[in-house]
Amino acid sequence: MTYCVAMTVDEGLVFPSDTRTNAGVDHISTVRKMSVFEQPGERMLVLLGAGNLSLTQVVLHELSEPADAAKPTLWTAPTMADAARVIGEAVRSVHQREAAALQEFGVDFNCSFILGGQIAGNRPRLFMIYAAGNFIEASAVNPYFQIGEAKYGKPIIDRVLTPPRRSTKPQNARSSPWTRRCARTSRWGCRSTCRSTRKTRCASRASSRSITTTLTSR
Asked: Which secondary structure element, helix H or strand E, spans residue 125, and what is its range?
């Protein structure tokens, strides 16, 4: 079971994610679902992944070790939309290579991603990338995205993220009695991680200062 969520708040962006990969009784393993691509002072990108673990890892390999050095990467994309497009193209590349073989074994091509962050000179932005490689962007009407086991998250997040309460600390959603009750119901047993990035004003020649905090709880 995977649960990842990313949200836009007045102070910036927040990225909570769990570390569980299997909800079975006899085999429970943990894998980090969050990847960070950072060039201090220039860009801060956070990528969350859910779905078939082998597929999300292969996509990450495509992003970390691009085959064509001439194509844009997460390190060189000029805007967050371009970065989301880079991820979409990586997903399509993996689909072309792996989907047919998976289908022979009755395995669906199932992976999705959330990308958020800030590049110097631009505002923080948040995107969700689907298994087809297409993507959508968060807005004031829809300020957050969920991937994975998302059925418990929406009513909890809506209580603390609905305007005019968007400035409420998002950590409140992780500590309310309802959240703890839902966590027990869904049998979360592994550690969760949360990364937050604060908004910074970036001039054309000035670097963006990303303030990050890692919160770990059981």
From this structure: strand 125-129
In this predicted model, what pLDDT tens digit does every residue of 60-74 receive, in sequence order? 999 998 888 788 999
Sign of CA dihedral 72, 75, 77, 80: positive
The predicted model scores a pTM of 0.76
Task: Record the tokens describing residue 85, joined without a space.
Answer: 């497009």
CA-nearest of 158, 113, 146 to 132 is 113
CB-side neighbour CA atoms (13 Å) of 170: 25
- The CA distance from 33 to 40, in Å, is 22
Return the structure tokens found at 144.
């957050």
Cis peptide, bond prior to residue 164, ω within 30 of zero: yes
Pairwise CA distance, residues 52 & 111, whole Å:
6
pLDDT tens digits along 87-102: 999 999 999 999 999 9
